[in-house]
Each structure stands twice: as structure tokens, then as C-alpha cells.
């Protein structure tokens, strides 16, 4: 009998299932399950699925999630069991007490991994009332904005193209609207954002500085809900609901600038000369829960920026030519259009093979495309004979990816969570194509009909990227968790194949007093580059792959951290890192940065970069007042030993900022009123300015004068700081809620520098007398104090 | 293309023009540094060094400096060269008068025969300011052979308003070059035309040596001579990129070996343009065409590439061009002094005579 009991006790069984929101059926990512005796736990993956293996027996399982009420189930586990759990949202944010294998946050094994729930993104006050995922990320330690007020992100000394931004697992190449003032992600469609910047999980690859994993809503499985929002810049509509209750749901989000909606009106008003700019985003998702074992997701995203200009002219005249009277009618039309944006489509299949093995299969297509067109059409009717001159120019560039990926979560025992998988991406790069059509028609005769192609019209670059990964998050005893992993990738282009084995390892030691320590190492490789034209995101920026001569960028990052979470609702983290980057690219000295890929390999230089820093993050995650304080001390530099940049000497990186402080506070006074404040300070970045005039010797022996620059990025731009405040008023209605939001960007009107440049300007004495001109440093501020108001109606 | 870009950027700039302020940026206008420039050669025996003063907002000439050159320890004093004259309007007399040219540099000359391996030191000082540089004369490369042939080149150029077809007659120079063994070497290959003009009015009245200087040439996708720059032939995208106008290149494609390069000079350059000279009844032109193959050190190669960028995109810092960092090899001051070990290949062209009152244009 004793032997039988012992055998029974040794039998391992697995409890698994999905954790969802009780009201909407939305899966909860990162929700926890904890067995209260042994304190063994698990966390839901990106699809809300959890699995926990234990010896058979009687257990109390505690299910919880941030902002939700905890649920406890008593379960008699004698065989593998599926338990789908629904959680009810709480009135105020309550923390989850689960200490388990989280993918991010201080409880995870990874360093530099931060979760941003959608509520946190929506509550952070930002520019013109537009909540913005990337701008909230900029307030995290180790993440900096590029140009003040714009949405580019620079992570731990890396460049803007070194961040892999995934929308439901699909990379997005152009993440900006309005030259980078807003990002393309609609907060209404976003469920969760996870940032990795330190010891990267082995399942990610392809960029060297950060991974931003954005997951969108699946759609309400229970009932139809929606949101309508009117802001200063844009209008938004979000709808979600069941198509078949608890089986099939949809989620649709649309956002567009007012100028998009009113463009027909603007066109009517401005008949002769019409100009307009707008952007829009459309997100759609269908979720199909076929069974407890199979779920399908179909997602799509389309975003566009568009600038159009049209000019129409008309005229009539009587001309006397060689004593003959000629009646002439003229008509002309000029139009210019620029549009750019992403199109993404994905299909995903979740399959639970058994309680220990979960698989996610994804196929996706994504495309970034930029098209500029310009054309003129001149029509002349002379004595009844019609002549038409037409000229049309077309310039386009883009990148297209087709990818397939399969990921497995394997839970062989409570101590191990093994993730493995593979991915293949077929990249097609169209760096630039330009063609022109010239047509002249007189009467019925076609006199000229020519199509010209500039550059090589067939020029495309292709790249095949294949990756395999495996990682195991396993516990050794109750205080040590180790996550070793490896990411093996291959990139094939121009007949050359690059292989990269990227070891990743992180370890976490927990103590009984709430303190924990982590250390990690990660190697990353990157096979694509962005040829950027300026400090802001321009549509003419070009993505290009590595070539047979330009090697992949790699980074090796070591990081350590100390963490404390014993005070309820508070989290403290302190991390340090050292990152070495190889084969990073910069334009050579004296190189035109305009977006042409012709000979781009000759215009760039490969070099090394070093980034080091210390990051402090204090978060209050629960209660009426939540928020965080982030401080970053960082240093980042570059060196290009071949001498084509800065004479081969080390120089500070363009966005090397020594200090950054971000404070974000969200306070709910009651159910009706709330206030959010965000204050940011950052040391200025660097720029290059001439320091003197100098004589130069020309090849023909002449001597000229030129502006002399002693080294690249030799001037530190003044620091930036600003306070943004938002007030929100919530009113419960019979169906839903009405929210009025009043926000002020840059409350104390700090004239932060967006761009700086040198220019000759006038000098005056104290009486206002003109003294002459001298060289001056000038700054442009485009974002002074900006109040805004928005209204949102949830139903 | 430019129009579209201009419109796009204008729209962006309108947005950016929201507010402009001046940032405090202090510099000492009297913080002067001696700038020393020179391109010396083993081919020449008279060498020029150009000195100037560099300030944050200007450059000035440096007429009263002490300038010395030491070749293997032997001192040569350099003397100041008169800058020549230029016309200037005199407001007092309302006349145009000849005045010394107001260069923002001062030329100094000295005599010395330089040989490969020589140690050379230049010093320039004025008051408390002192600048110097130390160099070793490099080993020369070799022009092994030169072949010429007249060719007609045709190509289509895709401009934004249509395709133009060009046709041009060139002298094609096929040149076999030999690298300097055992070291990274940097070269220039220049085409130089020297013209001696003799004016007669019954008898010889003047003889003028006019160094026409470096001639421009085409390379038509010669990878060695273009050295990573554009050939400038093809389409509007290549128009955006600089060509190798300083004619410098490295030996990375023919290290320790020989290489064949091709350059093209229009035939009309050799026929020339005949000036009119008053009070002259006969003009005689004695022309010598030279290919000059100079070898020099890496710092001067970097300097020439920096200058090439400036020639293409301008001498001031431009927001859409990465700033150019001018290399220096002068301690205590600024500038670049180089010594080239040169070899040349000369072609003496047939003497041309013409009567100026019967000017013939070819």
C-alpha cells in the first residue's frame, strides 16, 4: 500500500489551459497560475496559454493578472487536466503575486525586459492627445528618442534601424507617421507591448539593439463593443465582437487624420490649387477558437501617409500670327503625390499537441512601399486642333518580406520550459526605381511617346534568412533560474552565405528577502540596414540588405542587474550593461546622405561601436497612483579604423546622451477623474559644427578657404526637458462610458532644440546698431506648448 | 526628382520653421593657428609651402613667418613669394590701379632636391606660434608603359527630361602601372599639359612657360582610377555622387603587382585654343603632355579624398552631407604637407605656329 502511495505521489500530471478576460474572452498574456503549497507557478504565453506539471494530488491554484481579481481553484489532479479560467477586472490596479516564468519584468529570467500593458500606454500623456506606443517606450530606461518630440527609438547606444518592431510577430519596417511625430501603432488595437534590450530570448533575432513585441487584441468573444474617439489631429474607431459567440470574433481599428475625412471638402474649396496631407491606419483581426486545442488568428494592418498637390490652369486667347487670327484655348494640370506605408497580413495557428507541447505556426507577408509621382498635362486647342503634352514621373522604393515560422513551447517538467522553433524569411528589396513617360499628341498624330527608365529598372536585392533557436528556462533549486539558449541564423544574398551562431544566456538568483540578481550575455546579428537621410524619418530612407562586401552587424552584450519587489505594489530595478557592436555602418565623411542606393556600399564604412550604461527603474504598479521613475546614465561611441570617418578616431555617437530622467505618474482620484503627468529630461545629443575656417590645398595647387570640423559630433546640443499633463473625465453612461481628455504638451513651453545648425547672423550693439555678421549656432523648436482635447466614447 | 524632393522637403521645412532661436556658442575670434600646406615632389627642385592663419571666422595671410625646411638635417630657408598684382578701384582717384593681390595665404619657396627615403622637416613660426611637420619621402611607383589610340566614345545619358546621346572623340591612354612593393601605397595619376608660348614680332619678344595644370579626364568605369567614386556616366542617380576629381587611388586592387588602367582625354584638348596677341606677327606653341604618377603617404590620400568631397558638395558644412574631417599632419598648427615621389611619362607634341591676326580655331 505504501509502495502504491509512493508510486501515485511520483506520477506527474499537467494542468493547462487558457486564461481570458471574463467580459470579453480576450486572452491574457503573462497571467499567472501559482500552486500555493509548493509555490510552483507558470505564466500564460503570448496566446494566453499556460501549462504546469506537478505530481498528482490535491492543489489550490491561484490565478491572477495585473488589474484583475484573483481567483483560487481547488483541483484534485489525478490526470492531465485542461482548466480554462476567466478573470474579472478589478476596480484599481492590483498586482499579480505569481512568481513564475514571466517573459518580461523583474520576475523573468531575462534582463532588460519590460512589459507595457495597453492601459499604461493609453494613460501616458503625449503630444496632441495621441497616445503613442513608441513615445511611451522612449520613457523607459535605456531607451531614448532621437530628435526631440519624434518617435524614433534608440536603445542602449544603438541606431534606429537596430530595433526589431513586431506587430503580432511580423516585422514592421516603417513605424512612423508625419516624419516621425507619431508612430503607426493604434493604442486601441494594442493589448501588450514587451521591450527586450538586454539578454534577448533566443527566439528573437535579426536586430542588434532591441526587440519590441507588440500584441494586438483578439476581439471580444462575448459581445460587441467599440470606441469612437475624436482628437485634435485624428479620429478613431474601434469595433470588436463575436461573429459566433465564444468561437469566432473580430477586432477592427481605424485611425485617420481629419484631413483625410475632409479631403473632398478641401478639394471643392481649393479648385485651382489643392494640397493635402494625411495618414491613416487600419488594423483588423479575426480569431477563431476551433477547439481547446486549435485556434486560428488572421491579422492585417495597413497604414499610409499621403501628400498630394494639384494645380489647374485655364486660359483663352486670340493671337494674330502672320495676319491670321488664331483662337487658342489652354488647359494645364500639375499633380504631385507622395505616399508611403506598410501592408501586413498574417495567419497564425495555435495547436496544443498535448498538455506539454504547444505550437504556434505563422505565415506572414509584409511590405513597405514608397511612391512619388509627378505629372503635367498641357492641352492646347488652336483653331480646333487639339495638342496634348503629357509628362509623368514615377519614383518608388520598398521592401517586401514573405515569412513562415513555427514556435514550440515544451514543458517536460515543472523545472523546465523549453522553447524552440525555426523561421524563414524571403526578403525582396527594391531600393529605387524611376521612370518617366513623355507623350506629345497633335490632333490624331502621336508625335512623341517615350518611356524612360533611370537606373536599372530590374534592380532588386534578394535575401533569404533562415533561423533556428532553442532555449530552456529551468529552475535549479528554488532560488536559481537559468536560461541558456542559442539562435542560429543564416543569410544568403548575392551568392554569399553568412552564418551566425548567437549564444544567449541569462541567470537569475532570488533571495528570501525580495532581492534578486540577474546576469546575462547575448549575441545578436543583423542583416538589413536603413540608409537614412536625416535626423527624422523620411519616406526616401531606404532599406538595403547586407551584401557580399558589407558584413552583418553583430553585437555582444553583457548585462547585470539587481531587483527588489518586497514592498507591495513597488518594483525596483538597477541594471548595468556593456555592449560591443561590430560592422556597424555610418556614412563616410563628405557623403551625400540623400536616399539613393546607387553605390551605397562605397558611401558607408564598417566600424565598431561601444555602449555602456546604468539604468534605474522604480515602478509603482498598483493602487490609485501608479507610474515610474527611470534614470539612465549612458555613454555610446563609434570608431571606424579605416580612416574614412573622423580620420579613424573614436567619436561620440549622434545620440550619445549622458543622462536621461523620465517620471510618469498616473493618479485616479475617483471613478470620474484622473490626472497623468510625465516629465522628461535628457542631455542633448551631439551634432557636428565647424569650429574654424582654414586654408585648403586643391589638387591644382590653388589655395581655398573652407569650414573646418575637428571631429564628428563635436558639439553637444543643449539638454531637453518638458512636462506633459493630461486630465481625464470619465462618465458612466447607460451603454458604456464617455471620456473627455484635456492634455497639455510641454506645459512650461520649454524651447527644446529639435534641430541645430550654424549660420551667419547679424550682430547688434546694445543700442540696436548693426555691427556686422558672425557665425551663430541656431536651434529650431517645433514643439512648444501644445494644448489638446479629445473625446472618446466607449460602448 | 529634384522637384518632388524639393516639395516634400519644403513641406517638412514649413513644419519645422515653427520657432528659431540662437544657442549660446562661444569662440575666441583671436584664437589663431598656423596653417601649413604644401605638395612637394621629387620631380621638382623648387617647392612651395603655403602658410596662413586660421581663426574661427576667417583665414588670413601670414607674410612675416620664419619658415625652414630640413632635408636629412640640412637646413633650407624658405623665402616669401610676391603674391602678384590685381586690379583695385581707387575711390580717391576714381581709377583702377594695380595693387598686390590680397591672398588669404602667403606662399614661401625653397630649393631642394628630394629623394625617396629622405627625412624632411618643415617648421614655421611667428611669435609664440610654431608649427612643424616631419615626413619621409616615399618610394615611387613606376609607369611601365603607355599606349595611345584615338577612339570615339558614344553613350546615352538618361536625364530627367529625356535621353541624350553623346559622342566624343578621345585619346585613350592605356597605362601599365607598377606598385611599390612591400607597403600600402597611395597614388595620383595626373595628366598635365605644359605649354611654352613664344611671341615673335620679327624676332622673339617673349617666351612664357604656362603650366596648364592638371587636365580632367574620363575613366569610363575604371575601378582602380575611380577608387570607389562614381564614374559620373549613366543616370541621374550617379549625378548625386562624386567623381574622383583629385585622381587619387590606393594600391588595394593591385598590391605589389602591375595593373593596367585606362583614361580618356578629349582630342580637342591636344589641339588647344589659340589666343590673339596684339603687336605680334607670329606665335609659336611648344606643348608637352605628361602623365605624372605620384606616390605619397596615407594621410595625404585621406586629405585628397576629403578635398574631393568638398569639391563635389561645397566647402561649408551642409545638412544633407556628412561633414568632412580634414586630416592634419602638422603639429602645433594645422594643415597638410605632403611629399610625392613622382615619375612621369612625357609626350612632346608637334610645335604649332600661327599668325595671331589669322586665328584658327580647331
Write the topology of this structure.
The complex is a heterodimer of chains A (795) and B (362).
Chain A: H1 2-10, E1 12-21, E2 32-35, E3 40-43, E4 49-55, E5 57-64, E6 71-77, E7 81-82, E8 85-87, E9 113-117, H2 118-123, H3 133-137, E10 143-145, E11 153-155, E12 163-167, E13 170-171, E14 176-177, E15 182-183, E16 190-196, E17 210-216, E18 225-230, E19 234-244, E20 248-257, H4 258-261, H5 263-269, E21 273-289, E22 294-321, E23 324-354, E24 357-382, E25 385-413, E26 416-442, E27 445-454, E28 461-476, E29 480-493, E30 496-510, E31 515-526, E32 528-531, E33 542-545, E34 553-564, E35 570-587, H6 600-603, E36 604-620, E37 625-639, E38 651-652, E39 659-668, E40 673-682, E41 686-687, E42 692-697, E43 703-708, E44 715-716, E45 720-732, E46 737-745, E47 755-764, E48 770-780, E49 786-794
Chain B: H1 2-16, E1 20-23, E2 33-41, E3 46-54, E4 59-61, E5 66-71, E6 74-77, E7 79-80, E8 85-90, E9 95-100, E10 106-111, E11 119-126, E12 129-136, E13 142-159, E14 162-178, E15 186-201, E16 203-215, H2 223-226, H3 236-239, E17 248-250, E18 258-266, H4 267-271, E19 282-296, H5 298-313, E20 334-348, E21 352-354
Amino acid at each position: 500500500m505504501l509502495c502504491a502511495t509512493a508510486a501515485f505521489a511520483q506520477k506527474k500530471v499537467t494542468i493547462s489551459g487558457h486564461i481570458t478576460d471574463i467580459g470579453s474572452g480576450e486572452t491574457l498574456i503573462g497571467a499567472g497560475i501559482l500552486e500555493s503549497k509548493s509555490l510552483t507557478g507558470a505564466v500564460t504565453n503570448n496566446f494566453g496559454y499556460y501549462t504546469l506539471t506537478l505530481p498528482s494530488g490535491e492543489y489550490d491554484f491561484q490565478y491572477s493578472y495585473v488589474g484583475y481579481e484573483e481567483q483560487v481553484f481547488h483541483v484534485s489532479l489525478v490526470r492531465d487536466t485542461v482548466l480554462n479560467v476567466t478573470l474579472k477586472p478589478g476596480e484599481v490596479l492590483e498586482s499579480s503575486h505569481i512568481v513564475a516564468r514571466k517573459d518580461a519584468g523583474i520576475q523573468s529570467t531575462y534582463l532588460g525586459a519590460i512589459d507595457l500593458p495597453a492601459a499604461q500606454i493609453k494613460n501616458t500623456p503625449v503630444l496632441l492627445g495621441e497616445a503613442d506606443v513608441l513615445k511611451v517606450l522612449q520613457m523607459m530606461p535605456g531607451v531614448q528618442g532621437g530628435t526631440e518630440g519624434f518617435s524614433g527609438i534608440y536603445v542602449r547606444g544603438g541606431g534606429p534601424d537596430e530595433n526589431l518592431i513586431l506587430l503580432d510577430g511580423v516585422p514592421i519596417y516603417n513605424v512612423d507617421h508625419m516624419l516621425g511625430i507619431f508612430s503607426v501603432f493604434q493604442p486601441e488595437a494594442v493589448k501588450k507591448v514587451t521591450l527586450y534590450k538586454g539578454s534577448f530570448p533566443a527566439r528573437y533575432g535579426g536586430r542588434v539593439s532591441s526587440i519590441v513585441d507588440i500584441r494586438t487584441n483578439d476581439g471580444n468573444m462575448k459581445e460587441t463593443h467599440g470606441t469612437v474617439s475624436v482628437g485634435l489631429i485624428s479620429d478613431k474607431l474601434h469595433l470588436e465582437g463575436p461573429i459566433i459567440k465564444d468561437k469566432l470574433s473580430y477586432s477592427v481599428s481605424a485611425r485617420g487624420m481629419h484631413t483625410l475625412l475632409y479631403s473632398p471638402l478641401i478639394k471643392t474649396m481649393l479648385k485651382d490649387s489643392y494640397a493635402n496631407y494625411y495618414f491613416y491606419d487600419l488594423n483588423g483581426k479575426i480569431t477563431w477558437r476551433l477547439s481547446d486545442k486549435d485556434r486560428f488568428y488572421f491579422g492585417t494592418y495597413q497604414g499610409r501617409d499621403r501628400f498630394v498637390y494639384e494645380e489647374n490652369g485655364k486660359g483663352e486667347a486670340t493671337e494674330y500670327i502672320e495676319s491670321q487670327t488664331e483662337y487658342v484655348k489652354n488647359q494645364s494640370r500639375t499633380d504631385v503625390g507622395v505616399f508611403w506605408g506598410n501592408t501586413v497580413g498574417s495567419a497564425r495557428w495555435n495547436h496544443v499537441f498535448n498538455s506539454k507541447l504547444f505550437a504556434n505556426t505563422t505565415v506572414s507577408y509584409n511590405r513597405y512601399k514608397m511612391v512619388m509621382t509627378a505629372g503635367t498635362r498641357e492641352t492646347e486647342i488652336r483653331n480646333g486642333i487639339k495638342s496634348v503634352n503629357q509628362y509623368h514621373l514615377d519614383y518608388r522604393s520598398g521592401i517586401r518580406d514573405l515569412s513562415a515560422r513555427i514556435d514550440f513551447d515544451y514543458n517536460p517538467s515543472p523545472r523546465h520550459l523549453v522553447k524552440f522553433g525555426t523561421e524563414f524569411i524571403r526578403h525582396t528589396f527594391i531600393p529605387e526605381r524611376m521612370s518617366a513617360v513623355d507623350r506629345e499628341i497633335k490632333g490624331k498624330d502621336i508625335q512623341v511617346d517615350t518611356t524612360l527608365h533611370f537606373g536599372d529598372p530590374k534592380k532588386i536585392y534578394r535575401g533569404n534568412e533562415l533561423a533556428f533557436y532553442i532555449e530552456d528556462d529551468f529552475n535549479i533549486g528554488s532560488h536559481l533560474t537559468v536560461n541558456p539558449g542559442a539562435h542560429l541564423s543564416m543569410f544568403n544574398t548575392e551568392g554569399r552565405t553568412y552564418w551566425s551562431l548567437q549564444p544567449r544566456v541569462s541567470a537569475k538568483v532570488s533571495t528570501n528577502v525580495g532581492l534578486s540578481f540577474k546576469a546575462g550575455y547575448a549575441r545578436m546579428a543583423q542583416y538589413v540596414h536603413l540608409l537614412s537621410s536625416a535626423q527624422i524619418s523620411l519616406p526616401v530612407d531606404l532599406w538595403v540588405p547586407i551584401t557580399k562586401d558589407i558584413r552583418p552587424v553583430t553585437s555582444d552584450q553583457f548585462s547585470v542587474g539587481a531587483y527588489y519587489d518586497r514592498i507591495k505594489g513597488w518594483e525596483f530595478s538597477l541594471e548595468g550593461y556593456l555592449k560591443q557592436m561590430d560592422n556597424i555602418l555610418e556614412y563616410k565623411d563628405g557623403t551625400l546622405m540623400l536616399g539613393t542606393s546607387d553605390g551605397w556600399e562605397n558611401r558607408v564604412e564598417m566600424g565598431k561601436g561601444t555602449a555602456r550604461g546604468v539604468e534605474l527603474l522604480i515602478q509603482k504598479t498598483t493602487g490609485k497612483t501608479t507610474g515610474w521613475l527611470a534614470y539612465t546614465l549612458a555613454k555610446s561611441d563609434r570608431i571606424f579604423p579605416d580612416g574614412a570617418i573622423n580620420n579613424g578616431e573614436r567619436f561620440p555617437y549622434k545620440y550619445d546622451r549622458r543622462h536621461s530622467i523620465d517620471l510618469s505618474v498616473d493618479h485616479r482620484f475617483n471613478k470620474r477623474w484622473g490626472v497623468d503627468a510625465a516629465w522628461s529630461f535628457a542631455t542633448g545629443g551631439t551634432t557636428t559644427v565647424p569650429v574654424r575656417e582654414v586654408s585648403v590645398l586643391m589638387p591644382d595647387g590653388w589655395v581655398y578657404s573652407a569650414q573646418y570640423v575637428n571631429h564628428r559630433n563635436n558639439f553637444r546640443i543643449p539638454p531637453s526637458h518638458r512636462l506633459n499633463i493630461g486630465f481625464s473625465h470619465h462618465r458612466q453612461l447607460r451603454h458604456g462610458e464617455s471620456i473627455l481628455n484635456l492634455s497639455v504638451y510641454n506645459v512650461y513651453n520649454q524651447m527644446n532644440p529639435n534641430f541645430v545648425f550654424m549660420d551667419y547672423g547679424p550682430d547688434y550693439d546694445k543700442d540696436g546698431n548693426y555691427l556686422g555678421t558672425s557665425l551663430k549656432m541656431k536651434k529650431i523648436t517645433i514643439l512648444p506648448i501644445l494644448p489638446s482635447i479629445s473625446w472618446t466614447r466607449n460602448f | 526628382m529634384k522637384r518632388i524632393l524639393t516639395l516634400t522637403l519644403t513641406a517638412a521645412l514649413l513644419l519645422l520653421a515653427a520657432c528659431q532661436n540662437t544657442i549660446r556658442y562661444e569662440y575666441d575670434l583671436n584664437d589663431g593657428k598656423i596653417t601649413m600646406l604644401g605638395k612637394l615632389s621629387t620631380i621638382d627642385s623648387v617647392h612651395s609651402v603655403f602658410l596662413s592663419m586660421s581663426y574661427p571666422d576667417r583665414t588670413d595671410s601670414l607674410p612675416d613667418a620664419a619658415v625652414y625646411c630640413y632635408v636629412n638635417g640640412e637646413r633650407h630657408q624658405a623665402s616669401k613669394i610676391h603674391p602678384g598684382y590685381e586690379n583695385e578701384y581707387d575711390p580717391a582717384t576714381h581709377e583702377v590701379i594695380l595693387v598686390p593681390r590680397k591672398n588669404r595665404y602667403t606662399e614661401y619657396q625653397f630649393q631642394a632636391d628630394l629623394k625617396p627615403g629622405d627625412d624632411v622637416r618643415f617648421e614655421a613660426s611667428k611669435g609664440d606660434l610654431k608649427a612643424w611637420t616631419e615626413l619621409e619621402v616615399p618610394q615611387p611607383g613606376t609607369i611601365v608603359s603607355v599606349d595611345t589610340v584615338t577612339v570615339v566614345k558614344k553613350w546615352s545619358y538618361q536625364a530627367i527630361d529625356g535621353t541624350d546621346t553623346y559622342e566624343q572623340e578621345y585619346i585613350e591612354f592605356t597605362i601599365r602601372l607598377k606598385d611599390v612593393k612591400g607597403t600600402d601605397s597611395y597614388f595620383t595619376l595626373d595628366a598635365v599639359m605644359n605649354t611654352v608660348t613664344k611671341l615673335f614680332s620679327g624676332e622673339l619678344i617673349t617666351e612664357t612657360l604656362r603650366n596648364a595644370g592638371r587636365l580632367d579626364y574620363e575613366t569610363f568605369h575604371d575601378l582602380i582610377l575611380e577608387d570607389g567614386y562614381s564614374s559620373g556616366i549613366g543616370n541621374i542617380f550617379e549625378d548625386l555622387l562624386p567623381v574622383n576629381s583629385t585622381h587619387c587611388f590606393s594600391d588595394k586592387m593591385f598590391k605589389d603587382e602591375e595593373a593596367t588602367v585606362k583614361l580618356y582625354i578629349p582630342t580637342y584638348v591636344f589641339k588647344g585654343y589659340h589666343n590673339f596677341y596684339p603687336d605680334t606677327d607670329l606665335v609659336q606653341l611648344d606643348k608637352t603632355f605628361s602623365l605624372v604618377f605620384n606616390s605619397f603617404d596615407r594621410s595625404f590620400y585621406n586629405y585628397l579624398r576629403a578635398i574631393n568631397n568638398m569639391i563635389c558638395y561645397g566647402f561649408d558644412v551642409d545638412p544633407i552631407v556628412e561633414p568632412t574631417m580634414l586630416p592634419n599632419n602638422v603639429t602645433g598648427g594645422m594643415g597638410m604637407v605632403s611629399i610625392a615621389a613622382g615619375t612621369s611619362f612625357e609626350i612632346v607634341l608637334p610645335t604649332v605656329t600661327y599668325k595671331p591676326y589669322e586665328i584658327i580655331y580647331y
